[in-house]
């Protein structure tokens, strides 16, 4: 387990990642990380992926276009 420290940054809160965590994520200073919630409620931190970003945008488009159909199917 790797501990992430939260610290005050102006009026916000920032996270300090140890070098080993950055290496595991494959990121460096200035990169974007995403915090997502899994179906089991667990939170996950991941690096930006163009492939995943494209999949998410496609899913959002489908949800936008078929909102009423999806709502009816969920009942």
Summarize this structure as a short list of keywords or feature phrases.
alpha+beta; 27% strand; elongated; two-stranded antiparallel sheet; single chain; 3 helices; 75 residues
What does this protein look like?
With 75 residues, the chain is an alpha+beta fold. Helices cover 40% and strands 27% of the residues. Strand 3 and strand 4 form a beta hairpin. The longest helix is centred in the C-terminal third of the chain and has 16 residues, at 50-65.
Q: Percent helix among the residues?
A: 40-55%
Instruction: Determine the structural class based on helices, strands and strand pairing.
Output: alpha+beta
Cα separation of the termini: 40 Å
Radius of gyration equals 17 Å
> How many helical stretches?
3
Main sheet: strand order: 1-2
Number of strands: 4
Roughly what fraction of the amino acids lie in strands? Answer: 25-35%
Main beta sheet: 2 strands, antiparallel
Low-confidence segments, given as residue ranges, are none
């Amino acid at each position: 387990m790797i501990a992430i420290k939260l610290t005050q940054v102006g009026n916000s809160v920032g996270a300090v990642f140890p070098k080993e965590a950055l290496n595991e994520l494959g990121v460096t200073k200035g990169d974007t990380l995403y915090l997502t919630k899994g179906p089991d409620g667990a939170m996950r931190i991941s690096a930006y992926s163009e492939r995943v970003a494209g999949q998410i945008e496609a899913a959002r488009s489908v949800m936008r276009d078929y909102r009423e159909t999806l709502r009816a199917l969920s009942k």
